Backbone:
């Protein structure tokens, strides 16, 4: 990760004022670091204690199953940092898969179909973005609406059919792995996209604007950020990547159905929030989000290997999610209390910035 | 989340007959759509509004109305509760399990309501004391309650044959076309509406949703009110769970999953904005009635069920878009009027 | 913030480029459905090399994993417990894993992968999707794991055996016969199915339509197939819709345990009780109340416990090398008798049982 320090902390200082470089514990224990550490601990423990975890086949399964979530988590992180959310990602992926199946059945070449599906994703994102930015509607409500609408359209497009006879070389790309390693082919485009997203978020003015918009939209607008355009382009990027995921999903499972990727949005949101991206916007790192995605993925894999039932896995996911939002707040309160004590003992009246306005 | 909408909401003063009138218009608009739709369907299919047909429409809406009214109380305080589907499922099973063991039907309903209220309190405590975003917390409790439910229930299910026949009959009988369940829902609806409108603590829900900071400064016990909203929402979801059992006579570990989206849609279509502080529970009840009626209308005019989901989604988008445009209009008028008063005073 | 980005403009360019590329590619003629002249993968995976030794002794200590469409589903719990009982008598070990949603195909794939990792001896799976599990199941087979499908099949190339509850044809046709008798072979009928994508239901409905073409059904007309998505509320409303849209409707076939239950609950509380006949596939415990109160005259189902039990015996026979899944091979299934592998590796359990008021109390599942 690029080490721009803007707005990545767990406190709610606005990104443009330098945070007080003092004695906060909060600086040392940032939530995304915690998640990263947890992931490392989990991996080390699993490698040493869980049978069958460490072999190439299992690792490729792990990555393959996590990849759809990891893909969408990239633009979702950017979107949540800017203070918006997109719940229609699973439906967009389903829709592009359904269209892919319908066009394939109609006899179009796959080389035409895939760009059309991606284009469709851009349109889906554009619809979300325009409703949010032009009409000023809350993104949560808009994307719950399009969650139903896109899935409904997918159902109209493909109906009861399940299309499976895609060309073998494409299916091989979707499910195969690089010879001699555990890395699926599809992980390569993901790595490229990760790099792009990381650079955009943490090393460019666009990224800084995103944090600014998320922290205070007014302030960002006054400082010259074109808020609407920025948000619109983030929605479009999310739609695009979602449809890419939809295409990947079809190839990976060799099955285009209207109900592909149902419920994916909750997994993505859970992973991103677990990674310490603050739901109120303005805070988070891409590294945290990626760690969150793989923490959930690896945990699921390990729990299945040690025969934890699906029901218990649901509970674990929920508990993690609650901890992920409670954790940073408790840590912050502790650090504030600690800072106060330090101030009191060091009788010098050093002004301490208290965390502002959590509602 | 929704910072874009904030300036407008802040600009609308809570007083003023205009706003009231607009809100009424909003409810009337849903009612008009509903009546138009039902009338059109009746013309197309004369069996639609038979006694049985009307009874079915009301019965279908009952459960959604109850949960949506509870959800509306939470959304009015500018929070959200996504765990309602899970709560409905677990309370329905708890009530069924109790009845299966030979329990009293009335006690079973009380048990479901109490259990629901307990889950509501859990959500409310996390949100108000922990001061964490409601969406995330209740997404977490959605998973947790569903998981606990499936571990507890396993592959057991409650079927109609183990329930007392009086309880099941209560689920679908009524006074001619008016089912008992609908009467119960109407009583709850009126009570909640009266509370929100005529009690100080009820009005404080709106104040809290409009501006939490201002409400806090004005002496509204913010945490207490939020907690109360969540408990009410959980209790209503619990009541709905008990009624679900009576109505469908069948509950397993999957009951109510995915219901939260329908509930949130009904609330939004009914005119309660996600930004809090506005809307009425009557609107929400109409929204719920509209959504469930669409699901009855489409099959009875022979539209394939394939279209249902897309139509639901588009309707939701339309509803929030219309709300927004209306809100902008009202702001414009109010601003103009304020300017006129000011100039008149100076002139 | 001096940077001026114009995403809208860039977007336009990007769209134009993609469109051009797409058009260009299609003009050159790419890979289409017709050009991929795929060799139909209809041969069951059985034919792979190894030969069967019908006299081989049954190995003990094998692990057979059951992967139902959905855990916590009463139907699958009964059938998996049937498998468990069979495996325990044979001295094998049993485990059951699965997703808590019946449409979580990705979850089911990842469970197949996990079982491959755990190196179980055999997997008995009820597939949520005929194709989506193929890659994972083939990988399992190439790791030496025997694969049996039960209740719901995959493509034949992705498993060694399919344990069919009853032949699809017999099921589809017998449900129409059952309803025909109840209606005196006259009147409009409708079907209330599960999800539109449900493989089993769609096959059965195909045979129902075919059966209705026979002369004795000339006065029965199928007016609509509705989909209740195996959800109680949706099935409820679809039933209401059917009755309102077709006031002359005389009978409903619901070939899914969730659908028939919901339809029965609606009918029993409405004026249509007894006037509209309902039949289909249901479990006796679910339907007991409705059969006794006169809403339903009769319905049918196979014994799910026997289905699971047969799947367990078949998996054990495969893992012991007694059969490979080729047509004509036979294997013993305890008290169920001896079964022969049919074409495409299908083993049929037998005829479904019809439940009526007179016999329903003899069954408890």
Residues:
């Amino acid at each position: 990760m690029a080490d721009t320090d803007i707005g990545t902390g767990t406190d709610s200082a606005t990104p443009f004022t330098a945070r007080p470089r003092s004695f906060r514990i909060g600086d040392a224990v940032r939530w995304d670091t915690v998640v990263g550490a947890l992931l490392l601990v989990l991996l080390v423990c699993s490698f040493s204690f869980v049978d069958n975890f460490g072999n190439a086949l299992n690792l490729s399964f792990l990555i393959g199953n996590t990849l759809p979530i990891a893909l969408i988590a990239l633009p979702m992180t950017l979107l949540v940092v800017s203070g918006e959310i997109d719940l229609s990602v699973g439906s967009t992926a389903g829709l592009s898969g359904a269209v892919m199946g319908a066009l394939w059945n109609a006899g179009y070449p796959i080389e035409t179909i895939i760009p059309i599906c991606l284009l469709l994703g851009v349109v889906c994102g554009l619809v979300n973005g325009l409703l949010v930015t032009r009409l000023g509607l809350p993104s949560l409500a808009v994307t719950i609406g399009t969650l139903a609408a896109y899935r409904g359209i997918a159902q109209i497009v493909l109906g009861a059919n399940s299309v499976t006879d895609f060309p073998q070389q494409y299916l091989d790309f979707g499910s195969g792995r690089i010879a001699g390693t555990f890395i699926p082919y599809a992980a390569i485009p993901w790595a490229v996209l990760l790099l792009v997203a990381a650079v955009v978020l943490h090393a460019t003015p666009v990224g800084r604007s995103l944090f600014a918009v998320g922290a205070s939209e007014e302030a960002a607008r006054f400082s010259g950020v074109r808020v609407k355009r920025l948000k619109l382009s983030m929605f479009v990027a999310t739609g695009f990547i979602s449809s890419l995921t939809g295409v990947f999903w079809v190839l990976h499972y060799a099955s285009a159905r209207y109900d592909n990727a149902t419920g994916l949005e909750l997994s993505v949101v859970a992973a991103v929030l677990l990674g310490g991206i603050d739901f109120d916007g303005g805070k988070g790192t891409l590294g945290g989000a990626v760690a969150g995605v793989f923490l959930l993925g690896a945990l699921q894999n390990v729990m299945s290997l040690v025969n934890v039932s699906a029901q218990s896995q649901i509970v674990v996911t929920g508990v993690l999610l609650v901890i992920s939002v409670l954790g940073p707040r408790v840590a912050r309160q502790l650090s504030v209390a600690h800072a106060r004590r330090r101030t009191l003992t060091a009788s010098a009246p050093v002004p301490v910035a208290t965390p502002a306005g959590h509602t | 989340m929704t910072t874009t909408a904030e300036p407008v909401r802040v600009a609308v003063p809570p007083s003023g007959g205009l706003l009231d009138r607009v809100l009424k218009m909003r409810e009337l608009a849903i009612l008009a759509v509903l009546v138009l739709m039902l009338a059109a369907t009746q013309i197309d299919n004369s069996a639609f509004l038979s006694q049985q047909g009307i009874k079915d429409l009301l019965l279908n809406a009952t459960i959604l109305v109850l949960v949506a009214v509870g959800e509306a109380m939470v959304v009015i305080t500018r929070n959200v509760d996504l765990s309602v589907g899970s709560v409905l499922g677990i309370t329905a099973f708890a009530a069924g399990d109790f009845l299966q063991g030979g329990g009293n039907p009335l006690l079973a309903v009380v048990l479901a309501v109490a259990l629901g209220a307990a889950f509501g309190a859990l959500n409310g405590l996390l949100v108000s004391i922990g001061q964490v975003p409601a969406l995330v917390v209740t997404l977490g409790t959605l998973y947790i309650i569903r998981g606990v439910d499936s571990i507890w229930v396993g592959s057991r299910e409650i079927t109609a044959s183990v329930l007392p026949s009086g309880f099941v009959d209560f689920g679908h009988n009524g006074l001619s076309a008016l089912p008992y369940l609908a009467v119960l829902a109407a009583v709850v609806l009126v009570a909640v509406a009266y509370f929100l409108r005529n009690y100080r603590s009820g009005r404080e829900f709106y104040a809290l949703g409009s501006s939490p900071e201002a409400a806090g400064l004005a002496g509204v016990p913010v945490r207490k009110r939020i907690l109360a909203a969540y408990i009410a929402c959980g209790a209503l979801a619990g009541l709905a769970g008990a009624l679900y059992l009576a109505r469908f006579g069948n509950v397993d570990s999957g009951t109510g999953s995915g219901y939260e989206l329908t509930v949130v849609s009904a609330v939004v279509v009914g005119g309660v904005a996600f930004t809090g502080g506005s809307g009425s529970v009557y609107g929400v009840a109409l929204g719920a009635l509209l959504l469930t009626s669409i699901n009855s209308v489409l099959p009875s005019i022979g539209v394939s069920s394939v279209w249902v989901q897309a139509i639901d989604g588009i309707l939701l988008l339309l509803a929030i878009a219309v709300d927004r445009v209306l809100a902008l209009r009202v702001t414009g008028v109010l601003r103009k009027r304020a300017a006129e008063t000011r100039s008149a005073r100076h002139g | 913030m001096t940077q001026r980005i114009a995403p809208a403009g860039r977007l336009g360019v990007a769209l134009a480029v993609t469109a051009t590329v797409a058009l260009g590619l299609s003009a050159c003629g790419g890979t289409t459905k017709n050009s991929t002249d795929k060799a139909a993968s209809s041969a069951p995976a059985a034919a792979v090399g190894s030969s069967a030794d019908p006299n081989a002794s049954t190995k003990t200590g094998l692990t057979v994993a059951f992967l139902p469409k959905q855990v916590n589903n009463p139907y699958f719990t009964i059938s998996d417990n049937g498998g468990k009982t069979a495996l325990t008598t044979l001295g094998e070990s049993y485990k059951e894993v699965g997703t808590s949603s019946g449409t979580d195909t990705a979850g089911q794939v990842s469970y197949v992968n996990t079982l491959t990792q755990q190196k179980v001896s055999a997997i008995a799976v009820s597939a949520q999707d005929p194709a989506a599990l193929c890659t994972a199941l083939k990988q399992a087979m190439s790791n030496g794991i025997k694969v049996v499908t039960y209740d719901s099949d995959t493509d034949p190339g992705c498993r060694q055996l399919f344990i069919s509850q009853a032949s699809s044809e017999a099921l589809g046709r017998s449900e129409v016969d059952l309803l025909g008798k109840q209606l005196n072979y006259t009147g409009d009928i409708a079907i209330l199915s599960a999800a539109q994508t449900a493989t089993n239901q769609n096959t059965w409905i195909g045979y129902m339509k075919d059966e209705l073409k026979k002369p004795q059904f000339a006065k029965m007309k199928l007016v609509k197939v509705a989909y209740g998505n195996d959800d109680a509320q949706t099935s409820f409303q679809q039933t209401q819709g059917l009755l309102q849209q077709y006031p002359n409707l005389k009978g409903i076939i619901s070939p899914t345990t969730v659908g028939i239950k919901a339809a029965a609950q609606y009918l029993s509380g409405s004026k249509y009780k007894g006037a509209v006949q309902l039949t289909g596939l249901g479990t006796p415990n679910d339907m007991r109340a409705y059969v006794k109160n006169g809403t339903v005259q009769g319905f049918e189902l196979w014994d799910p416990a026997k289905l699971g039990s047969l799947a367990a015996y078949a998996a054990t026979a495969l893992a012991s090398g007694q059969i490979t899944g080729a047509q004509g091979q036979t294997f013993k299934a305890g008290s169920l008798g001896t079964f022969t592998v049919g074409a495409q590796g299908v083993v049929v359990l037998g005829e479904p049982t019809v439940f009526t008021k007179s016999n329903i109390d003899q069954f408890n599942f």
Notes: Confidence is low (pLDDT under 50) at residues 1-27, 349-359 of chain A. The domain at 25-342 of chain A is CATH 1.10.3470 (ABC transporter involved in vitamin B12 uptake, BtuC).
